[in-house]
Amino acid sequence: MDRAAAVGVTRAVTVADDLPSARWAVQAAHWDGRVAAAVALHPTRTAAVTEDDHAEIEKLARDPRVVAVGETGLDHYWDHSPPAAQEDSFRRHIDLAKRLGKPLMIHDRDAHDDVLRILREEGAPETVVFHCFSGDAAMARTCADAGYVLSFAGPVTFRNARALQEAATVVPEELLLVETDAPFLTPHPHRGRANEPYCLPWTVRGLAGLRGVSDERLASSARRNAERVFRFGELPPIA
Fold first, then answer.
1. Which pTM does this prediction carry?
2. Half-sphere CA count of 217, side-chain side, radius 13 A
3. Each residue of 52-64: pLDDT tens digit?
4. CATH number of the 2-231 domain
5. Mean pLDDT of the chain
6. How far is Cα 176 from Cα 186, in angstroms, rounded to an integer?
């Protein structure tokens, strides 16, 4: 976070994908006032999930420094969890986000239609964030029409990511977030290195260029959106 602050990145949400990382993320959010947490069971981790696992995730999600329920959703790329288990867990996380009044942070890999279907069937929470958005312009428009927030990471700067770059140009300014997915998806020109929040300005510059706006405008709008979505102003101070 000190390296991030040196380039103007003043806050981060550290995101869990299983119970051990959820416990750690909540602890980290209490170590440093610049850090908040999101907790959930990642769809690839749902093959053997138990009622106790869901109960602990709910307990962790209630922590006042947890700002979102996520990552949850569907992953049709990896064959780590059966589709039925993924869908059941996704529906439970949707319900949890609605009951807690916290944003739902979605992992969607090769599962666009099914993710959107389940959100329609369950009724989406007030705030939905598509983490590391990977759809095309048509998907982006569908999400924007539903009021979902789309978060872009390093791949939007890759030369071979034309469909994703087109999607980034159609998202309304008030629905756009920027993220790292650390330690993965490092933006160009540092692709291949470990990613962390100090790398975010390269993604911001790439998005600004695609959208035809200044770096400063993109950074400012992304900051405002993050503050609104994750309610950073309401976070209690660390002890």
1. 0.95
2. 10
3. 999 999 999 999 9
4. 3.20.20.140
5. 96
6. 19
